[in-house]
């Protein structure tokens, strides 16, 4: 029996549990029971990006421990999945953890990567008759290389009208602690991102990373815009329920 | 001990000024978009861009890795061509060598073509203080020289100025009112600078590339002023960063393919000049005497440093500036150094070797990686920004509040029980400030966030709190079997990984 | 240099290191266009940046073209390189009302000033590249750099047999020739002088010639 584990990410755990739930249910319907190793806390990105690598190692070890004996690890975030690729660098002086890190790198997948590359599934039979626009998160698309998978999945959703987001590749301005430390620059970036979302006149904004979506949703709400913000897993799950 | 609060203000406050300057923001946005689109079109038309990038990267990596050899070759060959070579360890030295040459020639005027290194060493200031007129001849540089400002973009230095401001500046020079029309203004500059070219004692250039095997220097430009300053005056001084070397003319083809497309979307700049020494004795133009000042100024500090050595690959195309969303919003001056944008954010602290003063630039990035994607020689600037941040923390210059916050983070993230507890406490504590599942409070760390957003509230039940019931619910449902082809795919992947027995647990 | 080697944590590199990635990728070096393709590509590129192209069969036609242009532009001063092929154009005879200067043809003349006052500069291309729409000119005692730089109008005569496909074909020659054979100035000209420094508004003819003609001959 293969062990397929869920790397929930701290954001989804604490703020957006429905994303995790959607993933679990969607995969269960395809015969894959995700396991949830409770030991995991956070990938360590917030401290890593700010240069606090000792603190990062503390968090990273929970992830390494959690997935040590998994065959596949699935994660609803491109940036958290990519963070794992920094682990070998972080543990270069700790051979035991370095070994775990290298093995984890090879078996960790962002959600759409898992569906398309591992399972070979691009059509979940979802029906979602709405106007939708898609924001590709920076780490996921540029650094992890997730570009075609989400589009393939979206193209097979019946009734879904995908409107291209102008300047989609532009960063939403989250950047973790950047949004706190350089709040005005971040604010300018997210304002521009939402301006583009409004241009599409889409009902729904879909994405692959709750960090970005939380950021954009926050500005949408601040400006009283009724656009619904969803993770692709949530959209697909809702789509298979309303068949 | 440094004062983190004050330091963090510098980039933030400069950025604040930029964000409030509507014209600047529009101008920067328009320019960077135009250049970005140009690059995209040009690189797509050319095709195989990724292979060219890798080639460019390899050539630069190779050259830097053997810099002692190639720089030595260049120097020997240039000297054999009749060039006077000088070495400057610091910016002060570079400026003073240039000044010495000028004094020796009893020069009263120097015409300059674009040289970022000359800005880096504050050459104009040094020359002017000695009573020598230093005239910028690149149209954009000339404009900002008249305005007394620093460039705001590596390739298009005066984009922060509108035509009315430029007309005003140039009218003052002209002694008559000039219309705010590009052709009129450019026409005036052409005429005015012609006189200067023909009268000047010294021509000063930068250097895009220096070819080691023949001791030649290469200049890329569109206006013709670099050709002017290296042809007309009797003495030529060239300022060159020590890392600007490439081995051969064959390698130049790769650079000539990458640089113009990345900088402005052109196949080639209008002029590309290869200068091999001063004029030959029977030539009737070209400088009688040629000097090249090879500048270190912190570049050699990057050698042998695996995290920053690749910084020396940079060919100064500006593509990272055009790709950077932060730059697009704040423009070049907010970076507070000679070099702006992503390359500047890393180069300035790296060259200065003093992370404390400049580190706040490294904070002005969301680490989106657009710079890395745009760089024609694949410099991992997004990684380098994190290294800079880490070095600052390791040197003990981290922001005290942030350090405390991170320690708190580590304490909570260290084990899942604490983590779960922290979430639980948050769920209870937030009740006081949550309205409609959102938090609008502008207090403490939330102040910046909530100026532009409504923060989300913690979920009533976290995922881990729901897990057991979710898992049990699914256990009670009819189990769907995995599709055999899917199972086989997964098994194959595991096999390919070469993991052997780990499938079956520890 | 020793300092550099120390920083790189190894002894001085004294011999030429093996440069595995020298020059352009192999697939690129195989690109070769036939004559028609080269002419077309060069023309398209040259015209796209605001320069002009004319196709000539022989040098007589070239002479005629230049004569006409000089009249059209009411040129008073023309300067040309001191090359046989240009002498053979007979411009001096054709244009008695134009002062035709021949670069460095006499001592004690300020040739730079002559070039600066010239309305038209006439230059033979040493090489040309179709892929980028560029002309390469080399300096020498008989060929001043100023002739292709200072006049208002530049006429570049491009013998067809000197028009190659790729930039590398010209650049490689300089590697082959070696340091001692190189002239002081090697200039690649791909169109008229230009700038977008004022509000991104393109303007032609900033410092170098604003009007450029490429005459492809043969």
From TrEMBL, chain B:
Top-rank taxon: Bacteria
Amino-acid biosynthesis as UniProt keyword: no
Ranges of residues in domain 4Fe-4S ferredoxin-type: 304-335
Pfam families recorded: Fer4_8, LUD_dom, LutB_C
Keyword NAD belongs to the record: no
Alphabetized SUPFAM superfamilies for the sequence: alpha-helical ferredoxin, NagB/RpiA/CoA transferase-like
Keyword annotations of the record: 4Fe-4S, Electron transport, Iron, Iron-sulfur, Metal-binding, Repeat, Transport
Gene3D superfamilies documented for this protein: Alpha-helical ferredoxin, NagB/RpiA/CoA transferase-like
NCBIfam families linked to this entry: LutB/LldF family L-lactate oxidation iron-sulfur protein (TIGR00273)
Protein name: Iron-sulfur cluster-binding protein
Organism: Paenibacillus cucumis (ex Kampfer et al. 2016)
